Amino acid sequence: MSRSNRLLLAATVAFLTQTTHGAKAFADEVRTAARFTKYHGYTNAVELSRGNAKAILCPQAGGRVLEFTVDGKNAMFLDEQEQNWQPGRTVPITAGRFDYGPELTTTPHPKLWSGEWTAEITGDSSARLTSPRDETAGVQLVRDFVLDRAAAGDSKPVRLSCKQTIRNISQQVREVCHWGRSFSPGGGIALVPLGDRPSRFPSKYAMYEDSAIINVRNTDERIRERDGFLEILSPPRKPKLGFDSHAGWLAYLMPNDALFVKKFATYPDRVYNEAAGLTLSVWYPEGPRIELEPIGPRERLQPGETASFTEEWWLQPFPFPKDGQRIDLKKLSQLVAWQTQDGKTKD
Hints:
The chain is mainly β. The chain has a single domain, classed as Beta-galactosidase, Chain A, domain 5, CATH 2.70.98. It is 11% helix and 40% strand. The chain has helices at residues 3-17, 20-26, 110-114, 329-340, and strands at 32-39, 42-50, 53-58, 64-70, 73-74, 98-101, 118-123, 126-130, 139-149, 158-168, 174-180, 182-185, 189-193, 206-208, 214-215, 223-226, 229-232, 240-243, 249-254, 258-264, 280-283, 289-294, 299-301, 306-317. The chain is globular and about 45 Å long.
Protein backbone atom coordinates (compact mmCIF):
# COMPACT_ATOMS: atom_id res chain seq x y z
CA MET A 1 0.00 0.00 0.00
CA SER A 2 1.37 3.45 -0.90
CA ARG A 3 2.09 6.05 1.78
CA SER A 4 -0.88 8.19 0.63
CA ASN A 5 -3.23 5.22 0.82
CA ARG A 6 -1.94 4.32 4.28
CA LEU A 7 -2.62 7.86 5.44
CA LEU A 8 -6.12 7.79 3.92
CA LEU A 9 -6.96 4.50 5.59
CA ALA A 10 -5.57 5.77 8.89
CA ALA A 11 -7.80 8.84 8.61
CA THR A 12 -10.83 6.62 8.02
CA VAL A 13 -10.09 4.50 11.07
CA ALA A 14 -9.53 7.69 13.07
CA PHE A 15 -12.96 8.99 12.04
CA LEU A 16 -14.58 5.80 13.29
CA THR A 17 -12.66 5.52 16.53
CA GLN A 18 -13.15 9.18 17.45
CA THR A 19 -16.93 8.76 17.60
CA THR A 20 -18.75 7.07 20.45
CA HIS A 21 -20.25 4.49 18.13
CA GLY A 22 -16.97 3.95 16.31
CA ALA A 23 -15.06 3.41 19.54
CA LYS A 24 -17.56 0.75 20.58
CA ALA A 25 -17.46 -0.87 17.15
CA PHE A 26 -13.73 -1.38 17.38
CA ALA A 27 -13.59 -2.51 21.02
CA ASP A 28 -12.57 -6.13 21.28
CA GLU A 29 -15.79 -7.22 22.94
CA VAL A 30 -16.03 -10.81 24.13
CA ARG A 31 -19.65 -10.92 25.31
CA THR A 32 -21.61 -13.41 23.23
CA ALA A 33 -25.04 -14.95 23.58
CA ALA A 34 -27.58 -17.01 21.67
CA ARG A 35 -31.06 -17.48 23.08
CA PHE A 36 -34.71 -17.84 22.22
CA THR A 37 -36.74 -14.69 22.85
CA LYS A 38 -39.92 -12.79 22.01
CA TYR A 39 -39.77 -10.09 19.37
CA HIS A 40 -42.83 -8.00 18.61
CA GLY A 41 -45.49 -10.67 18.03
CA TYR A 42 -43.01 -13.49 17.36
CA THR A 43 -42.73 -15.79 20.36
CA ASN A 44 -39.92 -18.07 19.15
CA ALA A 45 -37.35 -15.67 17.75
CA VAL A 46 -33.62 -16.33 18.13
CA GLU A 47 -31.33 -13.57 19.36
CA LEU A 48 -27.61 -13.64 18.59
CA SER A 49 -25.43 -11.03 20.26
CA ARG A 50 -21.74 -10.23 20.28
CA GLY A 51 -20.47 -7.08 21.93
CA ASN A 52 -22.28 -4.12 20.39
CA ALA A 53 -23.98 -6.18 17.63
CA LYS A 54 -27.24 -8.10 17.62
CA ALA A 55 -29.23 -10.20 15.14
CA ILE A 56 -32.81 -11.38 15.62
CA LEU A 57 -33.83 -14.42 13.56
CA CYS A 58 -37.39 -15.42 12.70
CA PRO A 59 -38.26 -19.12 12.33
CA GLN A 60 -42.03 -18.59 12.63
CA ALA A 61 -42.51 -16.89 9.26
CA GLY A 62 -40.02 -17.56 6.52
CA GLY A 63 -36.65 -18.10 8.22
CA ARG A 64 -35.47 -14.48 8.11
CA VAL A 65 -33.38 -11.85 9.89
CA LEU A 66 -35.79 -9.44 11.61
CA GLU A 67 -33.07 -7.17 12.97
CA PHE A 68 -29.34 -6.62 12.45
CA THR A 69 -28.11 -3.81 14.65
CA VAL A 70 -24.76 -2.38 15.66
CA ASP A 71 -24.73 0.27 18.38
CA GLY A 72 -28.51 0.42 18.11
CA LYS A 73 -28.59 1.24 14.38
CA ASN A 74 -30.62 -1.27 12.40
CA ALA A 75 -29.84 -2.33 8.83
CA MET A 76 -33.27 -3.97 8.43
CA PHE A 77 -36.65 -2.49 7.48
CA LEU A 78 -39.53 -4.17 9.35
CA ASP A 79 -43.02 -3.20 8.20
CA GLU A 80 -45.27 -1.77 10.92
CA GLN A 81 -47.92 -4.42 10.22
CA GLU A 82 -45.36 -7.13 10.90
CA GLN A 83 -44.58 -5.66 14.30
CA ASN A 84 -47.96 -7.00 15.46
CA TRP A 85 -47.62 -10.50 14.02
CA GLN A 86 -49.91 -13.24 15.36
CA PRO A 87 -50.06 -16.94 14.42
CA GLY A 88 -52.34 -17.42 11.44
CA ARG A 89 -52.36 -13.72 10.57
CA THR A 90 -51.13 -12.69 7.13
CA VAL A 91 -48.64 -9.83 7.26
CA PRO A 92 -46.01 -8.51 4.84
CA ILE A 93 -42.79 -10.55 4.85
CA THR A 94 -40.13 -7.87 5.30
CA ALA A 95 -36.67 -7.29 6.83
CA GLY A 96 -33.85 -9.79 6.12
CA ARG A 97 -35.43 -12.05 3.54
CA PHE A 98 -33.72 -14.78 1.52
CA ASP A 99 -35.07 -16.75 -1.41
CA TYR A 100 -33.98 -18.78 -4.40
CA GLY A 101 -34.55 -18.37 -8.13
CA PRO A 102 -34.41 -17.88 -11.02
CA GLU A 103 -37.09 -15.28 -10.41
CA LEU A 104 -39.20 -15.67 -13.57
CA THR A 105 -39.33 -19.47 -13.85
CA THR A 106 -39.12 -20.96 -10.35
CA THR A 107 -42.17 -22.80 -9.01
CA PRO A 108 -44.01 -20.68 -6.39
CA HIS A 109 -43.07 -21.83 -2.88
CA PRO A 110 -45.13 -20.07 -0.20
CA LYS A 111 -44.29 -22.72 2.43
CA LEU A 112 -40.63 -21.77 2.11
CA TRP A 113 -41.22 -18.03 1.74
CA SER A 114 -43.54 -17.44 4.69
CA GLY A 115 -44.19 -20.79 6.38
CA GLU A 116 -43.04 -21.91 9.81
CA TRP A 117 -39.43 -23.12 10.05
CA THR A 118 -37.60 -24.88 12.86
CA ALA A 119 -34.75 -23.27 14.81
CA GLU A 120 -31.79 -24.58 16.77
CA ILE A 121 -28.96 -22.78 18.52
CA THR A 122 -25.67 -24.17 17.24
CA GLY A 123 -23.08 -22.15 19.19
CA ASP A 124 -22.53 -19.20 21.50
CA SER A 125 -23.49 -16.79 18.71
CA SER A 126 -24.83 -19.01 15.93
CA ALA A 127 -28.10 -20.66 14.93
CA ARG A 128 -29.66 -22.75 12.17
CA LEU A 129 -33.12 -22.30 10.65
CA THR A 130 -34.60 -25.18 8.60
CA SER A 131 -37.59 -24.88 6.31
CA PRO A 132 -40.41 -27.38 5.92
CA ARG A 133 -40.14 -29.73 2.95
CA ASP A 134 -41.95 -28.23 -0.03
CA GLU A 135 -42.84 -31.26 -2.11
CA THR A 136 -44.45 -29.16 -4.86
CA ALA A 137 -41.34 -27.08 -5.36
CA GLY A 138 -39.08 -30.07 -4.67
CA VAL A 139 -36.87 -27.99 -2.37
CA GLN A 140 -35.93 -27.69 1.27
CA LEU A 141 -33.80 -24.80 2.62
CA VAL A 142 -31.37 -24.53 5.52
CA ARG A 143 -29.97 -21.18 6.72
CA ASP A 144 -26.99 -20.93 9.06
CA PHE A 145 -26.28 -17.64 10.81
CA VAL A 146 -23.09 -16.76 12.70
CA LEU A 147 -22.30 -13.47 14.42
CA ASP A 148 -18.51 -13.19 14.56
CA ARG A 149 -15.50 -11.25 13.27
CA ALA A 150 -13.63 -11.60 9.99
CA ALA A 151 -10.57 -12.90 11.86
CA ALA A 152 -10.71 -14.42 15.33
CA GLY A 153 -9.33 -12.23 18.08
CA ASP A 154 -8.81 -9.10 16.01
CA SER A 155 -10.44 -5.71 16.42
CA LYS A 156 -12.48 -5.68 13.24
CA PRO A 157 -16.21 -4.97 13.45
CA VAL A 158 -18.69 -7.78 13.93
CA ARG A 159 -20.20 -9.39 10.84
CA LEU A 160 -23.28 -11.54 10.34
CA SER A 161 -22.58 -14.56 8.14
CA CYS A 162 -25.71 -15.84 6.37
CA LYS A 163 -25.33 -19.18 4.59
CA GLN A 164 -28.24 -20.64 2.63
CA THR A 165 -28.22 -24.28 1.53
CA ILE A 166 -30.67 -25.44 -1.13
CA ARG A 167 -31.55 -29.14 -1.11
CA ASN A 168 -33.24 -30.93 -4.02
CA ILE A 169 -35.81 -33.25 -2.40
CA SER A 170 -37.50 -34.15 -5.68
CA GLN A 171 -36.80 -36.99 -8.09
CA GLN A 172 -35.95 -34.59 -10.94
CA VAL A 173 -32.98 -32.35 -11.67
CA ARG A 174 -33.57 -28.81 -10.35
CA GLU A 175 -31.77 -25.72 -11.68
CA VAL A 176 -31.77 -23.02 -9.00
CA CYS A 177 -29.76 -20.07 -7.71
CA HIS A 178 -29.39 -18.20 -4.44
CA TRP A 179 -31.36 -14.96 -4.23
CA GLY A 180 -30.91 -12.56 -1.33
CA ARG A 181 -33.87 -10.21 -0.87
CA SER A 182 -33.36 -8.18 2.31
CA PHE A 183 -35.16 -4.89 2.97
CA SER A 184 -33.34 -1.89 4.45
CA PRO A 185 -34.80 1.53 5.33
CA GLY A 186 -35.17 3.79 2.30
CA GLY A 187 -33.74 7.26 1.76
CA GLY A 188 -30.11 6.17 1.42
CA ILE A 189 -27.60 5.74 -1.40
CA ALA A 190 -26.88 2.31 -2.89
CA LEU A 191 -23.32 1.78 -4.13
CA VAL A 192 -22.46 -0.91 -6.67
CA PRO A 193 -18.71 -1.34 -7.39
CA LEU A 194 -18.17 -2.10 -11.06
CA GLY A 195 -15.06 -4.22 -10.59
CA ASP A 196 -12.35 -4.83 -13.17
CA ARG A 197 -14.43 -6.74 -15.74
CA PRO A 198 -16.35 -4.95 -18.49
CA SER A 199 -20.12 -5.02 -18.21
CA ARG A 200 -22.27 -6.64 -20.88
CA PHE A 201 -24.72 -3.75 -20.53
CA PRO A 202 -24.12 -0.42 -22.34
CA SER A 203 -25.52 1.40 -19.29
CA LYS A 204 -23.55 -0.93 -16.96
CA TYR A 205 -26.90 -1.89 -15.46
CA ALA A 206 -30.25 -3.20 -16.66
CA MET A 207 -33.55 -1.52 -15.82
CA TYR A 208 -36.64 -3.72 -15.75
CA GLU A 209 -39.45 -1.93 -17.59
CA ASP A 210 -43.12 -2.92 -17.62
CA SER A 211 -44.07 -6.36 -18.97
CA ALA A 212 -40.64 -7.79 -17.99
CA ILE A 213 -38.85 -5.78 -20.71
CA ILE A 214 -35.16 -5.49 -19.77
CA ASN A 215 -33.65 -2.16 -20.85
CA VAL A 216 -29.84 -2.16 -20.97
CA ARG A 217 -29.45 1.30 -22.58
CA ASN A 218 -31.25 3.32 -19.95
CA THR A 219 -30.09 6.65 -18.59
CA ASP A 220 -31.38 8.07 -15.33
CA GLU A 221 -30.15 11.17 -13.51
CA ARG A 222 -30.60 9.33 -10.20
CA ILE A 223 -28.05 6.68 -11.21
CA ARG A 224 -24.54 8.09 -11.51
CA GLU A 225 -21.26 6.44 -12.51
CA ARG A 226 -18.30 7.79 -10.58
CA ASP A 227 -14.88 6.52 -9.48
CA GLY A 228 -15.58 2.90 -10.40
CA PHE A 229 -19.06 2.81 -8.83
CA LEU A 230 -22.67 3.17 -9.79
CA GLU A 231 -24.40 5.38 -7.20
CA ILE A 232 -28.17 4.97 -6.93
CA LEU A 233 -28.91 8.30 -5.32
CA SER A 234 -32.69 7.92 -4.89
CA PRO A 235 -35.56 5.87 -6.39
CA PRO A 236 -35.02 5.72 -10.17
CA ARG A 237 -37.63 5.88 -12.94
CA LYS A 238 -38.31 2.14 -12.57
CA PRO A 239 -37.40 0.47 -9.27
CA LYS A 240 -35.84 -2.83 -10.35
CA LEU A 241 -32.21 -2.66 -11.48
CA GLY A 242 -29.82 -5.49 -12.36
CA PHE A 243 -26.02 -5.65 -12.49
CA ASP A 244 -23.39 -8.07 -13.79
CA SER A 245 -20.54 -6.83 -11.59
CA HIS A 246 -18.07 -9.41 -10.22
CA ALA A 247 -16.64 -7.10 -7.55
CA GLY A 248 -18.32 -9.33 -4.96
CA TRP A 249 -19.90 -6.72 -2.69
CA LEU A 250 -22.30 -3.82 -2.49
CA ALA A 251 -22.90 -1.09 0.07
CA TYR A 252 -25.85 0.95 1.21
CA LEU A 253 -25.24 4.23 3.05
CA MET A 254 -28.17 5.22 5.25
CA PRO A 255 -29.01 8.80 6.26
CA ASN A 256 -28.21 7.96 9.91
CA ASP A 257 -24.49 7.64 9.03
CA ALA A 258 -24.54 3.83 8.97
CA LEU A 259 -22.96 1.86 6.13
CA PHE A 260 -24.47 -1.56 5.41
CA VAL A 261 -22.14 -3.83 3.41
CA LYS A 262 -22.87 -7.21 1.86
CA LYS A 263 -20.00 -9.35 0.62
CA PHE A 264 -20.47 -12.51 -1.46
CA ALA A 265 -18.58 -14.72 -3.87
CA THR A 266 -18.92 -14.33 -7.63
CA TYR A 267 -17.96 -16.81 -10.33
CA PRO A 268 -17.06 -15.19 -13.68
CA ASP A 269 -16.70 -18.54 -15.44
CA ARG A 270 -20.05 -19.95 -14.33
CA VAL A 271 -23.56 -19.50 -15.70
CA TYR A 272 -25.90 -17.06 -13.94
CA ASN A 273 -29.43 -18.13 -14.80
CA GLU A 274 -31.46 -15.03 -14.01
CA ALA A 275 -33.04 -13.66 -17.20
CA ALA A 276 -30.29 -11.05 -17.68
CA GLY A 277 -27.46 -13.11 -16.14
CA LEU A 278 -27.32 -10.93 -13.02
CA THR A 279 -24.97 -11.24 -10.06
CA LEU A 280 -26.81 -8.54 -8.15
CA SER A 281 -30.08 -6.63 -8.17
CA VAL A 282 -31.42 -3.56 -6.38
CA TRP A 283 -35.12 -2.74 -6.04
CA TYR A 284 -35.58 0.88 -5.00
CA PRO A 285 -39.20 2.07 -5.18
CA GLU A 286 -40.64 5.26 -3.79
CA GLY A 287 -41.47 4.69 -0.14
CA PRO A 288 -39.81 3.51 3.05
CA ARG A 289 -37.61 0.63 1.87
CA ILE A 290 -34.95 -0.62 -0.53
CA GLU A 291 -34.18 -4.24 -1.46
CA LEU A 292 -30.54 -5.38 -1.79
CA GLU A 293 -30.23 -8.64 -3.69
CA PRO A 294 -27.02 -10.68 -4.15
CA ILE A 295 -27.62 -13.49 -6.68
CA GLY A 296 -25.71 -16.75 -6.93
CA PRO A 297 -24.74 -18.77 -9.99
CA ARG A 298 -26.81 -21.59 -11.44
CA GLU A 299 -26.77 -24.80 -9.41
CA ARG A 300 -27.84 -27.90 -11.32
CA LEU A 301 -28.88 -30.24 -8.53
CA GLN A 302 -29.47 -33.95 -8.96
CA PRO A 303 -32.01 -35.57 -6.61
CA GLY A 304 -30.66 -35.38 -3.07
CA GLU A 305 -27.89 -32.89 -3.90
CA THR A 306 -27.33 -29.56 -2.14
CA ALA A 307 -25.65 -26.25 -2.92
CA SER A 308 -24.72 -23.41 -0.56
CA PHE A 309 -24.14 -19.67 -0.91
CA THR A 310 -22.97 -17.24 1.77
CA GLU A 311 -23.61 -13.54 2.25
CA GLU A 312 -21.55 -11.66 4.85
CA TRP A 313 -23.03 -8.51 6.35
CA TRP A 314 -21.33 -5.58 8.11
CA LEU A 315 -22.75 -2.39 9.57
CA GLN A 316 -20.38 0.47 10.42
CA PRO A 317 -20.35 4.23 10.93
CA PHE A 318 -19.71 6.29 7.80
CA PRO A 319 -20.76 9.91 7.14
CA PHE A 320 -23.80 10.46 4.92
CA PRO A 321 -23.10 13.35 2.52
CA LYS A 322 -24.64 16.70 3.34
CA ASP A 323 -26.42 18.68 0.63
CA GLY A 324 -23.97 19.51 -2.15
CA GLN A 325 -21.40 16.98 -0.95
CA ARG A 326 -20.37 13.64 -2.44
CA ILE A 327 -19.42 10.38 -0.80
CA ASP A 328 -15.67 9.86 -0.59
CA LEU A 329 -15.74 6.62 -2.60
CA LYS A 330 -12.01 5.99 -2.28
CA LYS A 331 -12.20 6.18 1.49
CA LEU A 332 -15.29 3.97 1.49
CA SER A 333 -13.59 1.36 -0.73
CA GLN A 334 -10.57 1.20 1.53
CA LEU A 335 -12.74 0.88 4.61
CA VAL A 336 -14.68 -2.01 3.05
CA ALA A 337 -11.46 -3.73 1.96
CA TRP A 338 -10.09 -3.41 5.50
CA GLN A 339 -13.23 -4.55 7.30
CA THR A 340 -13.90 -7.54 5.03
CA GLN A 341 -10.40 -8.93 4.55
CA ASP A 342 -9.99 -12.48 5.82
CA GLY A 343 -13.75 -12.95 5.41
CA LYS A 344 -14.68 -16.34 3.98
CA THR A 345 -17.40 -16.22 1.34
CA LYS A 346 -16.30 -19.29 -0.63
CA ASP A 347 -18.19 -22.43 0.32
